[in-house]
Amino acid sequence: MDTTAPAQHLSLSHLILHASPVVQGILLLLLIASVVSWFVIFQKGMVFSSAHRALKRFEKRFWSGGEMAQIYQNVSNNPQLEMGAGSIFCAGYEEFQRQRKGHAGDALDAARRAMRGAQIREIGQLESNLPLLASISSVAPFVGLLGTVWGIMTTFMNIGMAQQATLAAVAPPVAEALIATLAGLFAAIPATFFYNRFVHRLDELDAHYEVFMDEFTNILHRQLPESKV
Q1: For the CA atoms of the chain, what is the radius of gyration?
Q2: Of 45, 109, 170, 213, which sees the most CB atoms within 10 A?
Q3: Name one Pfam family in it (predicted).
Q4: Does residue 2 fall inside a structural domain?
């Protein structure tokens, strides 16, 4: 690390280029984490937006009325509807049709289990990569702090060997070390913000799915006398 750089060279690019190899390695690691974080943020943003649109389309079709068999045909043949609540509906309806000749309780329980399994799959797909955002948000500041501690420790070791502690000698290497903390926060703050936002949207979708399952179960229950179960 260069401990004799003049104070006028305290530009960001100069500090990064003249940081110690360990600090530069940590900065590279944090840059990769930041790029991965933003990739996940944009990808999950599109996924959640698509899930919300699919939910609205399905609810509009489902509650518009009509025979349940016709709704099933419309939903199961439409990729824009057969996701999220649409997938849960199809799973429950198919299982109910298979079991309706048996005991009423068995048919409803089987349909409910099928819907629960579809709900878990849908939520699992929405949750994918969210743990990665959580890891970046929690680990990145400590990685940056590690770079800062290492840089400052190396700086004072070099100053001790040079037996000088002028401001011109101390300021540049200390600034180099502090960049690692800045980089850690730069990676962690967006990851933390969007992780919390996505978790909130996930909870909203899960609540909608849960309500639909209850409502659809009641609809199936009303159909049981007609099927003479």
Answers
A1: 28
A2: 213
A3: MotA_ExbB
A4: no
Lowest mean pLDDT segment, chosen from 48-57, 99-108, 202-211, 212-221: 99-108
- Residue 207, amino acid: A
- Domain extent, residue 124, equals 7-227
Q: Which of 78-87, 144-153, 168-177, 194-203 has the weakest average pLDDT?
A: 168-177
**Domain tally, the chain:** 1
Q: What is the pTM of this model?
A: 0.80
Please indicate, yes or no, if residue 1 is contained in any of the structural domains: no
